[in-house]
Amino acid sequence: MQGRKFARSVIGPRVPASTRLNPRLSSRSCSFKPLNAPEEFSAIEMLSTTRCIGRQRIRSITPLAILSSPSSLSPKHQLPTRSLSTAGLHFGASRDHSKSPFAEIQTGRTRTTLPVFADVHAERKYRKEQLALVLRILHRFKMAEGIAGHCSVRDPVEPDTFWVNPQGRSFALMRQSTLVRCRISDGKAVEGDAPVDASASSIHSQIYATLGRGKGQQGGSDGGAEAVVHVHAFSALGRELDMINQDACAYAGAHGLIKFGGAVFDNQEGKRIASHIGKDKKVAILQNHGVVSLGRLSIDEAAWWQINFEMCCQAQLLADAAKRPGEAFEIAGAAEIESTKAEVGTPEMGWFCLAAYVEEEEAWSKGDHKL
C-alpha cells in the first residue's frame, strides 16, 4: 500500500479503469484528441499523447517499481526536465501519408512530415534556431576544434544572404542571436557585430553563389544549396570510401576529393572549392584540410552528412586495420548500392536522420539556443 500511495503522489490521482487508454479522455486528465480529430498532429500533441499513454500503462501495471522521484536519481543519470506544453520535436506527422516523403519506409497510422511555415520570417527563426542546435550537436560529436569550423544556412527572407557562426564562440553555447548574417556576393557581414572567420565567408558565400538555391525553393533545384557545414575531419589519406556498409552507400558518387590549396582567406579559393563540389556531391574532402558537407534542403541535412560521413570513415579505418594480408573487402553490388542510396541518401532522409540528436539537444538546451 505504501508503494501505491507513493506512486499516486508522483504521477497524480488514479484514473478509473474504465477511462484508461481511452482516447476520449478529458483534457484535464490528458491531452488526447477526440476521435474526430483532424488528420494532422503537431509534434507537441503527439509527444503529450505518448507520455499520457505511458503514464496510464504505468499506473495499471507498475505502481512503484519503475516510477521514482527524479530527485532520487544520481546527478549523472538525470536528464533535463521539460514541460509538455513547450516540449516536442521539430517536425510533425500526418495521417495523410501522401504528405510525407517517408510514406513507403514507415509503418503505423501516421507518417513524418517536413516542417511548414506561415511565412519566411517564421522560417528564418526556425533556420537560425536549428543552426544553433547543429553547432551544439557537432560539439557533442567532438567536431569543434578551437576556433576552426563553421556552419551556415541561407536566409529565407533575403536569400542572397546567409547566417553563420561567429569565430571564437563556443559551439556548445551557441544561440540564434549570436549568429552573423553575411552577403553571398562578397561574404561581407550585414547583420551582427561579431567577427567571422574569413575562410567561412569566402567558402560559404561562393558555394551558395555557384550552386544557387536548393531543393523546393523558388527558382531552386536539387543541385542547389541551402546549408553548408565545414569542420576539420578525415582528409589525409587521399582516398574515397569503399562501399562496405549500408551507410557508405549514401555517398556513392556523392563525395569527392579536392586538392589542398592552402588556408582559405579570399573568394578565389572559395570559388575553386565550389566549382569542384558541383551539383551532385553531399560531401567534399578538402585534402589535408577538412570536410565540407552540403544541405540541399536544410541545415539538419548538412549536419547529418557531416556526422554520418565521419562515422563511415571510422568504420573504414577499422575495416582497414582488421583486414589481413591478401584479403579483399566484400564490396556491395552496384544495384544494391543504388537502391540503398535512393532510400538513405535523399535530402529528406538527411534532414530526418538528425532528428533524434535535435530532440536530445533541445532537451539539454532548455531553450537556451533560442535566445
TrEMBL record:
Short name of one Pfam family: Aldolase_II
GO terms under cellular component: cytoskeleton
GO molecular function: actin filament binding
Annotated ranges, domain Class II aldolase/adducin N-terminal: 129-317
Protein name: Arad-like aldolase/epimerase
